[in-house]
Structures are given as structure tokens and as C-alpha cells.
Amino acid sequence: MKQTMDKQRRSESSASKAPARRQFFTDVARGASAAxxxxxxLTAWASSAKRSDPQAIRPPGALSGDDFLNACLRCGLCxxxxxxxxxxxxxxxxxxxxxxxxxxxxxxxCEMCEDIPCVAACPSGALDPALKNIDxxxxxxxxxxxxxxxxxxxxxxxxxxxxxCPLIDEAITLERQRNSRTGxxxxxxxxVQSDACTGCGKCEEACVLDETAIKVLPxxxxxxxxxxxxxxxxxxxxxxxxxxVPEQLKLEIRRPENSNAN
Amino acid sequence: xxxERQANSRVGAEAAATLxxxxxxxxxxxxxxxxxxxxxxxxxxxxxxxxxLKGNLSSSTVLNTVPLSDPFVLAQLIASGHWPAETxxxxxxxxxxxxxxxxxxxxxxxxxxVNIVTDTASWLRRRLGISKTxxxxxxxxxxxxxxxxxxxVAGGLLIWELVNPVSLLQRGLIFGLxxxxxxxxxxxxxxxxxxxxxxxSHLCPMGAFYGLIGKLSVIRINARHRERCDDCMDCYKxxxxxxILKPVLKGAANGVSPIIFASDCxxxxxxxxxxxxxxxxxxxxxxxxxENKK
Lengths: 262, 294
Ligand code: SF4
Ligand code: SF4
Ligand code: SF4
Ligand code: SF4
Ligand code: SF4
What we know:
Largest interface: A-B, 45 and 57 residues
Strand order of the largest sheet of chain A: 1-2
Number of helices of chain A: 8
Order of helices and strands of chain A: HHHEEHEHEEHEHH
Mean pLDDT of chain A: 83
Structural class of chain A: alpha+beta
Radius of gyration of chain B: 20 Å
Oligomer: heterodimer
Helix content of chain A: 25-40%
Mean pLDDT of chain B: 85
Structural class of chain B: mainly alpha
Shape of chain B: globular
Bound molecules: iron/sulfur cluster
């Protein structure tokens, strides 16, 4: 019995060696191409998921853009330690890549806790532990996006966004402008100072319009970038103690005869 | 007579008859208890602030002190170029050591919630007598594992974590599933209708990763009394990786050890449950082979 088994095994092994090897290579090729196909699909999907969505505002201290997506473990510890239930983890078809923390300012804004518990909870460093002062957080920046419907632009004194801002008169100011409709009043234009705004979203939550006129947008979306070659004359002047280009030649001003313009 | 028995009786029925219901189901019950209580503890923390286990399977803290992190997610993080903070690394090391000891794929059978989904599909498959199956290469999961670690290097993004059904389901059960159920339903239907044990045994890169971790693990299933095996085939039917059973059950003549060294074994111990002849035992890899030496 054992003998026959042995014989069988031997014959099997010698006869099936070549086909077995061929089978192995077919398997490898099939595995590789299946994996390749899945990989391509995933990559394509990932690149669409990567695009920042206007609604996906990140917790304070979040690394920027892709760095955050790479660093976040999707553990939800920040979500659990947020005392105001601001943060939530994205599910599959949310505007943020699934599993990452985000918040909708219009629903629940960030209360800017002084001890920043969400950052303290993050085990991976996706929320930068170097953030010690919540006023330095840049979750996004508020943008007064609808000047047409904002009540202050109509000459009314709504001011709600201005008054709820934790950094009132720093992150958001009221700039006076002439009201050309009445001719004798002022417009108080809510103006976001994007270098001070933390992106907490309290202004967006508080806006009295049905659809908010002021919105918090991710920084990448809201901020422009000055071309590398640009030099602002007044800044250069201040830095160098004088203008970089020699003073312009003073040309004689010729005017038509008898002109009394000065 | 034997074929008749195979056709007529349910898997494990004989074990239940000879050894009692509890004996024939104990590891299944314990496993479900383990899987569900882990989820329940996470959910209790998320919903009621009961912080015994906080976070989710990707990363968590025990009693607000001991960190635990999933080494597979950490590996993807590192591949994408982010060096995680110490808490996460420490958590990863603890989890890694644990599974190196108890068997990597114990994660699959004792912790992973997708296992409940795929086990149900497989059970339903047996009950409904669905035998049609599409062959998927067993090694595809290793290709996907390579891919899940390679794509972050190339693209710098945790691409697998965008879709990983394991992360998705466990997170969903703790924080709300949203539309994630679509993916889970797809896995269930794939396993039920298209290919037997397609997900866990052929595709899941996470299972493959934990399998590799457990290559040298200490805890092993041992077909210690394989001479008693009467070829009822029950263990083959319940085992999620049945290909690993034949060598140990039939290998006595060739000097193959009865200990299951295959890293695909999930240490689910279901084979112990359903075997009426009590062939299997939980042992360590160092168990000396005593059988057939009498
Ligand atoms: S700062 Fe406070 S309110 Fe804002 S996200 Fe963090 S924990 Fe929540
Ligand atoms: S705690 Fe950190 S790693 Fe965890 S979900 Fe929040 S940001 Fe991501
Ligand atoms: S988001 Fe709005 S409320 Fe918050 S700091 Fe910026 S301007 Fe102020
Ligand atoms: S193979 Fe994957 S999905 Fe299946 S139990 Fe293991 S980790 Fe979970
Ligand atoms: S051999 Fe046994 S313990 Fe291992 S996976 Fe199969 S049924 Fe589970």
C-alpha cells in the first residue's frame, strides 16, 4: 500500500513537473495582472478622492493636504475626545476620503478648546502635536462668499458673523464703506483677515441666511499663491532700506499751450 | 454508508451527537463573543464614553493608557512616507508581538468583523447547497498586499485604506456605517454566489499580512490524533483554508508533522469543534510528536 502510494507520488512528480511549472507561471501572470487591474482602478479612484472637497474641513493641527491623508490612521480617537462632537469620521461616500476626520462648520463648528483635546488624542501625528495655541490653528479660512445676499452688504447691521468670532476684530473686522444707495449711510463690510482666521467655522454656523453667505474653505481652495518672480516694491524697499531700482529720471512735463491744468 | 452520512447530516452534527452541543460549538461561540465584545467595547466608548477600549481597530487606547495600533495600517503609513508618532509605533509593536505569539491570523477569526460576514456566507452556501465556484488564485492576496504597500510609495497616499472593507466595517459599526454597507454586501454576495471563501482566503491583503506575521507563532493547531480520522470531511467543510488540512491529516506516512504550520490557518479552532473523533487540539509549535510512537 505504501509502495503504491510512493510510486504514484513519484510518477506524479516527474510527469507533472513541467506542467506544474507552467501552471505556476500562469498563476503568477494571472495574479499580477489581476492585481495590476485592481491597482489601476484604485489609483484612479484615489486621485479623485484626493481632490479637496469644499466641505471637508479638517481638525485643528491637521497636516496639509496629502500629508494629512498619509499620516491619519483613521482611528477616530480625535473624534472621541472632541467634547463638542464637532468631528466625525468620513464614511465611504462622504466628501472626505473614508475614515478621515472632518467637520461641517454649518452644523457643528469647532469651539477652539484651549487644551485642544483632539490634537492630544492623535496617536499618529496627523494632527500636529506642535500646535499649542488654538489661535494658531488653520483648519481653513472663512470667506465671505456671497456679497449679493449678505445683509451687511445691503446696508443692514447684521454683524452676526463678526460678533460670534472668537477672534473678533482680529480674524474678522468690519470695514466701513460709503453706502451709495442712500448716499448718507455707511456699509459695514465683514472682512476676514485670512492670516488670523483659524477656520473654526463659528461664523458660518451663525450666519442668519438660509444658505450661509460666509463659508469656511480649505486653505488650498481659498488662498491664492503669488508668482515666485513677484517683488512688491514697498516690501523690498523696507527690507533693503531703499529702492532696488535707481530713482526714475524726472522727465519734463509738456502740456498743451495755455492749459491751466496743474 | 459514509457518503450517505455526508449527504444527509449537517457539518458537526455527529460531533454534537457524540460530544454534546457545547463541545461541538464552543470555539465558534467563544469567537463570536470575542469579535462582538471588542466591537461593543469600542461602541460603548464612542456612544457612552466608557473608555475601556477607545478608538477602533486601526488604533486605540486601553483604559486611556496602553496604545494599540494595527501594524498593517502603520506599514501603509510608513510606506507613504509619514513616520508615525511614538504612541502609534509603540501601539503597533504591542499588537505585532501579540500576534507573533498567538498566530497572526487569530486576528481574522477572533477579532475581524468581516469574518462574521464571510463565515455567514460560507454557512449559507453549505445550507443552500451552492457548490458552483469560480477559481481565484490563493496567492492573489499577496499581490494585493504588495500593491497596498507599493502604491503609497509611488503615489504617497494610503490607497488601500480608502476601500479596505475591514477598516470600513469595524469603523462603521463603531461610528456609523454610512454607505459602507455596499462594500460589505458586495463581499457577502461574492463569497455566497461567485466564489467560495473568495474574500478572506483569496483577496484580503490584511489577512495575508497577518498570515506573514504569524509564520513563526507559538500557538498551533495540532492534528494530534490523526490516526482516528474517519474521513467524514467535516473539518474540510468548515475550515476557511481547507487546503492546509490534507497534508497534516494524511501526511503521517510521509513524515509530515501533524502540527499545522501553515500560516494561513486562522486558529479559529472550528476544526476542533466539528470533529467527532477529537482529532485536533490546540498546542504550541514545540509540542513533541507522540502519536504513532506507541
Ligand atoms: S478644538 Fe475642541 S471643539 Fe475644536 S475640534 Fe478640537 S476638540 Fe473639537
Ligand atoms: S486621531 Fe489622528 S490618526 Fe486618528 S483619526 Fe484623528 S487625525 Fe486621524
Ligand atoms: S472661521 Fe469665522 S468665526 Fe472662526 S476665526 Fe475665522 S472668521 Fe472667526
Ligand atoms: S482575511 Fe481579511 S477580512 Fe478575512 S478575517 Fe482576515 S482580516 Fe478579516
Ligand atoms: S485548520 Fe482548523 S483552526 Fe485552522 S483555519 Fe482551519 S478550521 Fe480553523
